[in-house]
């Protein structure tokens, strides 16, 4: 072999070695890039979930009020730290940046009563309005599943207003329109549907409401219940828009789930039954709508009751009833948007509170014969 050929051969070997090294380097770079991308995505995703969680109430179901003192001259950072230390918010930094982002100001020093169920906006409004908690004058608790007339009765027992006056206010078009002007995303035109019994039925949120004046006006008593419903429902509006579901349909579906559920019930399964029946163009056939149509509470619905002539009777009418039949809570709202994926078309509540789900009418009737005595 000549010297020239020998040099060429050596050059080719070096070139091949460099190409192999380049491939290895590219593989290493690609692997590192993929790892970094995964780690970075994880950090971004984790950060997003953490911030999203921090923006939500600490415990939506804990309506116990706690005394919180904000000293004179407290900065936003100091207030945020005080709220976190008292368990009212999850993260002081997130709250502080939320205030800056919303350009909120005007917080007042004083002694406040705040709860873990309050949203950021509720807390901000309390601190801005100076709801100083010398003492709560009185509280009104609205349990889940209460109808407008029942709410009027509850409010009446805690105030000097009669049930008749309260119900008259809740059905007064001037008052309703004033609330619509304040909460247009919640109170849409649908509440004035042709067959709707009461425009505000289902639109007063079940919760405990503290009042600091001994003699608030009736508007001051009722509006917080509508505002709280607005605050709860608006969290779901983007999802509702994706699902092409109106707020009124959402609140109505949640009310049906609320009324059918027991303490032991799986609301996501109940929700799935309702949606499955709607998909198959079957009537919902839910007893609480019959009782609502009858205007009374009964432990048992009889066959003659199913014949009541009312748009709310879901045994005689397909689809959702014209409007909500009661005020639903957070768990039922969540179930209305996240039904479990099932094939169930029937469910039966036993006397013990158990709910039995079945796929066919034959299965349903068998369970009915076992658990419901004539």
From TrEMBL:
It comes from the Bacteria. It is an enzyme of class 4 (lyase). Its main location: membrane. GO terms for cellular component: plasma membrane. Pfam families: YceG. It is found in: Cell membrane. Its EC number is 4.2.2.29. It catalyses: a peptidoglycan chain = a peptidoglycan chain with N-acetyl-1,6-anhydromuramyl-[peptide] at the reducing end + a peptidoglycan chain with N-acetylglucosamine at the non-reducing end. The chain crosses the membrane at residues 28-51. It is a single-pass membrane protein. CDD domains: MltG_like. GO terms for molecular function: lytic endotransglycosylase activity. The record marks 260 as: Important for catalytic activity. One of its GO terms (biological process) is peptidoglycan biosynthetic process. InterPro entries: MLTG-like. HAMAP family: MltG. PANTHER family: ENDOLYTIC MUREIN TRANSGLYCOSYLASE. Belongs to the transglycosylase MltG family. This is Endolytic murein transglycosylase. It comes from Metabacillus sediminilitoris.
